[in-house]
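Supplementary Methods, section 5.1.

A reviewer requested that the exact input to the structure prediction be made available. We therefore reproduce it here, unchanged from the version used in the analyses.
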Amino acid sequence: MRRLGLSLALVLVSITSAQAQETEPESSVSLDAYVFSQRDGGGDPDRAEGFEYQGLRVAIVRKVNEKYRVRVNATVAFIDNEDAKELPSSVSNRLTTSASPSLLTLDHNLAIDITPEHSPWTFSPGYFYHHQIEYIGTGLDFGAARDLFEGNSRFEARYSFRWDFLELSYWDKTFRGHDDRISHNTLFSWTQLLSPAWKGNLSFQYTRQDGFLTDAFNYVTLYDPVGSPVFLTDERLPNRRDRFQVNPRIRTSPGVGTALGLDGSFYADSWGLEHFAIEPSVEVELLEGWRWRVWYRLSFQSETRYSRDEPVASARYQTRDSDLGSFFMQSPGTSLSLPVGEAEELRFSVYGFSRDDGIDGLGARMGVVFRW
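The structure derived from this sequence is encoded token-by-token as follows.
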């Protein structure tokens, strides 16, 4: 399974949203362990969509001098996909299906923050690399940021280029050659200090993808006129996708050690998918240096125009992937950060989601960070 799933991505965004607002240290080393489990209690009735995920991430931030800072991340993860479902005997080619393989993945990226002398700008070039069986992803990143109006405003722009190389091993055990996928992602962000207690942020993101955008492990079940499944055929999706996303954010601190937040998100793409989300959060200081945060994300997604529910014939474009379907999702989570000594910090998170189409997930993170 090459997609971990939109649901997992949305939950991980929830646990990292607060981190993006924290003041970055001059230098640090952090180690985080992740576990996640997705349960398949619905979704596509004819395909297994559950999996287990275990990951380990190392992140290093090193300030060389006033002009240069280096950021390095490396993540290794193991994904164990659920065994293929047993299909009804009425499906003539059911024996050709195989379970999605277990995967060992590696992600690595490096970036350098460059602040030229006497310049208000910071530039951040970098590269990205992903490796797993039958899939290699490469990429380049570039960012630029500038503080304005005596530090009360901040403008950021980022661009990412991804070129993925795929070996097409399909769900029916056939190998169908090689293909690639190219992605361009652009993000613009404005952060504004509204008062000593209020801060807002608005970001806009556009992504263009071209190439092989189908998941070769996915299939679509065809039905006879009376509603019985009879044949499996390929998922097929367009070779171009345009994505648009807008994220407003507001934060306030009504008292020392307390923060309230509200995040919103609207996503739409050229496949007809739309996703709305809202996430309130509360962060308090329990003891000196101990920070506890709670959030609750509510989201709704409308299905892509290419979703097919019990089709009787193949279409040019077709999918039964539940991550491209319609659902309502609730995603609660909580995190705790506590200092250990003068420069170390332990952090813990528990998060999950529940969708009304029967797909659920639960995960946790445990980590430590050393700062100097």
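The helical segments are 6-16. These observations are discussed further in the main text.
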